[in-house]
Design goal:
Strand 10 (452-461) and strand 11 form a beta hairpin. The chain has helices spanning 25-37, 40-51, 121-136, 141-163, 168-185, 198-210, 220-227, 238-251, 253-261, 266-299, 301-317, 324-328, 331-343, 379-383, 386-389, 403-407, 434-451; strands at 13-14, 55-59, 71-75, 90-91, 166-167, 349-354, 358-361, 366-369, 374-378, 452-461, 466-475. The strands form three sheets. The protein has a five-stranded mixed β-sheet with strand order 2-3-9-6-4. The protein has a three-stranded mixed β-sheet with strand order 1-8-7, with no helix packed on it. It is of the alpha+beta class. It has a single domain (13-475), classed as Cytochrome p450. Bound molecules: protoporphyrin IX containing FE (HEM). Residues 92, 96, 113-114, 116, 123, 127, 130, 276, 280-281, 284-285, 288, 346-347, 350, 415-417, 429, 431-433, 436-437 line the site of protoporphyrin IX containing FE (HEM). Protoporphyrin IX containing FE (HEM) binds next to helix 3, helix 10 and helix 17.
Amino acid sequence: MASSNTQGSPSALKTIPGSYGLPVIGAVRDRLDFYYFQGQDKYFESRVEQYGSTVVRINVPPGPFMAKDPRVVAVLDAKSFPVLFDMDKVEKRNLFTGTYMPSTKLTGGYRVCAYLDPSEPTHAKVKQLLFSLLLSRKDEFIPTFRSNFTSLLAAVESELAKSGKADFNTLNDVTSFDFIGDAYFGVRPSATELGKGGPTKAAKWLIWQLHPLVTLGLPMFIEEPLLHTFHLPPFLVKGDYEALYKYYWTAGKQALDMAEDLGLSREEACHNLLFATTFNSYGGLKVLFPGLLANIAGAGEKLHERLVAEVRGAVAEAGGKVTLAAVERMELTKSVVWESLRLDPPVKFQYGHAKKDLEVASHDGVFQVRKGEMLFGYQPCATKDARVFGATAKEFVPDRFVGEEGSKLLQYVYWSNGRETEDPSVDNKQCPGKNFVVLVGRLFVVELFLRYDAFTAEVGTDLLGTSVSFTGVTKATSGPGS
Ligand code: HEM
């Protein structure tokens, strides 16, 4: 089933099929397809079908007037996608959000880490700061996760008792924001001057950067001029940003000391901490947990029973404690987290400029890309590639990654902007939060199944991903207590 071989190795280079259409008009027309007429998945899948190729020339949103050039070479299968991870082949300067870049006025005047290419010296300094911060706080991850998410589940139960339904996303936003501050700095933002307004301020600031890529479900004639044509003015979110910055400046004192030792100014480091924590971490968990919860809910009681047995068994063996060693023994739990990250990667778009003339190989051919052209990957197409994941590629298969055979597929899990079998470093652009994310995903499953034998939920869509509401929980009838 798992195969990365080209089928019938072609000898000649193929021309990349596809069309950009007429200047401006073509890009606007495609943008409307992307947001309104087809939707994201269909937009890419239909072009793969139309041109009979997983490497195609297409426009990507937002197009005029925010992006100078919407034209990309899209790599849409598991074999071609990893060209985006190869730092010898692609440059990743200023393209974290794609063909447009939000104003640096939204990040204190700095180009923060996510927009830096590894060839820029500041990239290594900031990334090292984040590695050091995460390492210095690693023993706090389990206790802070547990205290914050136990409260979340208690709130779920009281909402269920009141109204028979509990909106998970809202509770998750509040909890994840506090958890991250607690885990990284030992200070819950809600207990500071920032108060309970942190998640709302953070969400507003996120929208100012991501509005070109989202739809709020409003009529097209309102959204097009408001969200997809011009940047929202940064001054409207300045006060929110300053309030967040103040929290990091105070709570992140130790991290800022570390930053100075690495040769960064406190100011540049603080804007970077804010970004890595609020955009990367909080933005990530806002999407990760609802997606994971929805997949586990959808899999039903049979999976719940297996997770209960695995989680409670490992915790009992660890003397009733949730330890890192206990979590490491939970193979199904880990597979469930990876499977959810495969099926619903929280960050779906990746970009890179070709550093030189390149050859890009898909399953079906080898294509010539010219120096300077923009390569683009829509991750769901690559991580749901049936030629790697077989007939169940589009389904949630909880134990897909269990065992020796299962672990061979991990090289095709790309959520972190790198293979799951590789590690982030100061020399690449792979997510420095990779291990943290897979750990908290597992802790989330652990918390659920220490507390519940099973649960039910309603699933819908949200601005950035999935929306989930609990509709019922069955409290644990046995277990290690923890
Ligand atoms: C980069 C995903 C959590 C910090 C990235 C990239 C992806 C990603 C796809 C590469 C973007 C690109 O250049 O194309 C995610 C997801 C997360 C998550 C899905 C959670 C579910 C975190 C956390 C941190 C973090 C917890 C905290 C340290 C960063 C930073 C970069 C990055 C600083 C830029 C890396 C570089 O410039 O080398 N992340 N991330 N992310 N992520 Fe994460």
